[in-house]
Amino acid sequence: MPELNQSPRTSGAQLPGAQELFDILAAESPRKAERYDFLKNNTDLFMAYRELGDMAGADNTWIDDYQHLPIEQLVSESTKYNDTLSEYILSHKDDYSKLFDSLSQEDELENADAIFVFGSQSNARIKKAVQLYKDGYAPKLIISGRGPYYAPHLPIEAEVLKRYAMEQGVPADAIITEDRAVTLPDNVKRTLDMFDDMDWHPEKLIIVASTYVLARAKMEWYKFSPYSIKTIAISSDEQNLSEALRRDEWTTSEAGIHMLLNEYQKMIVEHKVDLIRRDNA
């Protein structure tokens, strides 16, 4: 099986090859999943993704067979599938809003123990979190993130976002930071590791992520939490996002298309990784 993406990645529109995937796993918290049934319980998430594959003539059997495929084959087949879908979207002007909407369902706001912010080099997520804090939805902000694995040279996200929150009037003692996470699942795992060290067991969290990352954000908290934490998923405001992340703009650029399609692929590949970790224990 040929290796994919051997050259260094420079953005989230690219996906790691199998070897880099294992390198990333070695850099993450070793925490294992507690639940393995998110995909089984949320098959509707993938309906539009499958339907587009049928329209584009792409083989989507890997979606059902992911548990039984070697990780190298899964990465190869899923990447080829997304490449085919991307080419189809770019060459066929149509309404692809279902692909976006499936990933971006917000929850109804309610008060919580804390507002959790997935790390980012952008201020879009922390702006929303600060607004929610000032509106009284929670007494604390939790900010997680070292930064992308492929970009260790960038400033530590948690520190940058904490500084922004304090500049906006959030007191330092209301902010908890986690500064080692290198991926979205690692944000959750290392934050849960931190909760263990603090002997703190919040029952309800508002989680803030970019619009079409919401489904995977909810998935990570569901998979890794050792007890039932209610999560309330809220999106960054769209005006604070790049065009590639906006509902009405993402199909206009190859980067935007890949970033959205990657979310579907990542949910499945990450479940495969969870199974590998479980079975190799």
Detailed description of the structure:
- By secondary structure, this protein is an alpha/beta fold.
- It has two domains: 18-102 and 245-279, no CATH class; 106-240, Rossmann fold, CATH 3.40.50.620.
- It has helices at residues 18-27, 38-41, 47-56, 61-65, 71-91, 97-103, 124-134, 157-167, 184-198, 214-224, 254-279; strands spanning 114-118, 141-144, 175-178, 204-209, 230-235.
- The chain has a five-stranded parallel sheet with strand order 3-2-1-4-5, sandwiched between helices.
- Helix 8 links the parallel strand 2 (141-144) and strand 3 (175-178).
- Helix 5 (71-91) packs antiparallel against helix 11 and helix 9 packs across helix 10.
- The longest helix is centred in the C-terminal third of the chain and has 26 residues, at 254-279.
- Mean pLDDT is 91; it is low at 1-7.
Can you summarize the main beta sheet?
5 strands, parallel
Please provide the count of β strands.
Answer: 5
Question: Which structural class fits the helix and strand makeup?
Answer: alpha/beta
Instruction: List SSEs in N-to-C order.
Output: HHHHHHEHEHEHEHEH
Q: Low-confidence spans: pLDDT under 50, at least 5 residues?
A: 1-7
Shape: globular
For this structure, what is the CATH homologous superfamily of the largest domain? HUPs
How many domains is the backbone divided into?
A: 2
User: Beta-sheet strand percentage?
Assistant: 5-15%
Spatial sequence of strands, sheet with the most strands: 3-2-1-4-5
SS element count, helices: 11
Mean pLDDT reading: 91
Tell me the CATH architecture of the largest domain: 3-Layer(aba) Sandwich
First-residue to last-residue Cα separation: 26 Å
Radius of gyration: 18 Å
